[in-house]
Backbone:
């Protein structure tokens, strides 16, 4: 991580170990995808934009899997909220991890917000939650791609990400943005 708090492409990302909605646990260092682990940080069950975004990822899960990409959705939600999101949003194929801590969010360079009332879904925002981010992590646990948002909108389009991964894998395109001096 650089002094500003960004993860650096081609360098190892922090390990991440979290419980999964529905039981079990997930650890980044145990992942061995063909090409990438896709870590999609989302705001939580209270967010309608997250519901739609993760619904799109769910609908494209098979396409990403065929391409050697293993996606996971991660939030600071409680077990109850994560399980409700998984069930209510129909995330049948997508792993949903919860319980991300503030120190873990900081390690990943995520923006963090304080809750400020009810959302369009009629749910109370939690006291604190991470804003969205999307990371592609190589099998050697180095960063390939990062997109970090401070707001719920402006997220990368999964169709474009899928196409970009196809091109990057075929052309052996290197991770970019690694210069820190």
Residues:
């Amino acid at each position: 991580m650089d002094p500003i708090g960004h993860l650096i492409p081609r360098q190892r990302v922090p390990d991440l170990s979290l419980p999964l909605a529905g039981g079990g646990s997930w650890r980044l260092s145990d992942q061995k995808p063909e090409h990438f682990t896709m870590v999609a940080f989302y705001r939580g069950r209270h967010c309608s934009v997250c519901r739609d975004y993760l619904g799109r990822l769910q609908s494209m899960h098979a396409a990403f899997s065929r391409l050697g990409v293993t996606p996971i959705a991660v939030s600071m939600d409680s077990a109850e909220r994560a399980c409700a999101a998984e069930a209510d949003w129909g995330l049948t194929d997508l792993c949903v991890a919860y319980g991300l801590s503030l120190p873990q969010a900081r390690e990943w360079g995520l923006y963090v917000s304080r809750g400020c009332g009810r959302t369009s879904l009629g749910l109370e925002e939690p006291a604190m939650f991470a804003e969205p981010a999307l990371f592609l992590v190589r099998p050697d646990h180095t960063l390939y791609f990062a997109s970090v948002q401070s707001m719920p909108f402006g997220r990368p389009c999964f169709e474009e990400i899928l196409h970009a991964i196809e091109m990057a894998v075929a052309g052996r395109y290197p991770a970019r943005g690694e210069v820190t001096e």
Observations:
- The chain is about 25% helix and 20% strand.
- Helices lie at 48-59, 61-66, 79-88, 102-107, 158-171.
- The chain has one domain: 33-171.
- The beta strands are 17-19, 25-27, 36-41, 69-74, 95-97, 112-114, 128-130, 133-137, 143-148.
